[in-house]
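Sharing a chain and its predicted structure for anyone who wants a worked example. Both blocks are below, sequence first, C-alpha cells second.
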Amino acid sequence: MPTPPKNLLTGLDLIEKRWPKDLLHARVGLVVHPASVNSRLVHAINVCMRSKKFELAALFGPQHGILGQTQDNMVEWEGFRDPATGLPVFSLYGKARKPRPEMLATIDALVIDLQDVGSRYYTFIWTMDLCMQACHDARKTIVILDRPNPLAGHITEGPVLEPGFESFVGLRPLPVRHGMTIGEISAYFSDTFYPGLDHYIIPMQGWKRKMRFDQTLLPWIMPSPNMPTFDTALVYPGMCLLEATNISEGRGTTRPFELFGAPFIHPETIVNVLKEFKLPGVLFRPLSFQPTFQKHAGRLCGGAQIHVTDRERFKPFKTGVAVLKAVHDTYPRDFTWNQPPYEYEESKLPIDILAGTDRLRKDIEEGKGLHGMEKWWKAEAKAFEKIRKKYLLY
C-alpha cells in the first residue's frame, strides 16, 4: 500500500503555477460541478475569478447541474446567470450536451475540472469528450485539470465498448473500469479522435497509480447526488448495471449502489446464491429497505448490502454481474430488463448500452457461468491496456 502523500495537489491546485504560457490573458470558460474544489475546499470558480493569468468569462455544468441539484438520469437543467459572479452559466445536460458555437463565441479556451469516479458509465468523461469535439470544430483550446481516479489507476475490468453501442454512458472504446485519470482519458481522446486539437493537461503532483481516493487525503465531495462516499464509487462499476433492471440499486436510500433489492427478493435466499460464486474481497449481508424515491418507492424490498473486505482483490464489475445473474436465475418470473429510453438512447436496451455490448445480457439469458463470462471481458480489458499504456501520466 502506498504511503499517503503529504502534499498531493490536483490540477486545480496547480492552475496558476502551470497555466500554459500560450494562454496568458485568455478568455476562459470553465466546466465544473460541486466537487471542483482545491485541497483547501475553495471552489474552482473562486480560484479562477482571482486568477491573474486569464479572465473567467463563462461557466458550464454537466449532468446533475453546476450546483449538483438534479437527482436522476435524464433530469435536464437549463442555463442561467450566476448571481455571485454575473457570468453566464451554460447547461451541457439540457437542450445541448455538446457546447454550441454560440456558447464558445466569447472564449478562447475551455477549462474542464470534473471529478470522475473511474467508471465508463459516469457521464462526466462524455461531457469532456463532447467539449473536446466542440473545441476541435471551433478551433478553441481545451485545458484539462487532472484529478485522481478514486479507484486507483492500476486495474481495468469489464467489457470494452463495441461499435454500435455508443450512448451518453459510453461514446468511445473504454473498459467499464478504465484505470485512468480524466487527464489521461483526454490524452487518449485527443490523440485518437481529435488530431490537431489544441489540448493541454495540468497534471497532478504526488498521485501514484495504486492510490485509492481515501489514501490521497483529499476531501471527498459528492460529484453527483447518488455518489455520497468513496465506498459508493468502489462498488459503482458493477452495481450501476442494476439501473437497467427492475432491481433497486439503492437510490432513495442513504446507501445508493451499496444496497440492492426488490419486493420479490428474499434476503437470505439471494445471499446464499451469491455465496456460491465465491467472489473475492466482498461479503453480502441480507437486509430489507424501503426506498423513498425511484424504483419501488415506499415499498419494502428484500436484498443485501455489499461490504467490500479487500479492495485490491474486489472485482466490482464481476460482482455486479453476479448480482444480476443471481436475481435473474432465482426469480425468472419477476426479474425484467428495463426498456428504453435511457440516457437519450431510444432503441437499444439500457443493459446493452451500459455493458457496451449485448453479449453480457445474452450470456445471462442463456445461463452461462459467471467465471466463463469473465474470461471474455477480461481479455477485452487486457487488450485495451496496450492502448491505454501510451497515455498514462503517472
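Comments welcome. The mean pLDDT is 95.
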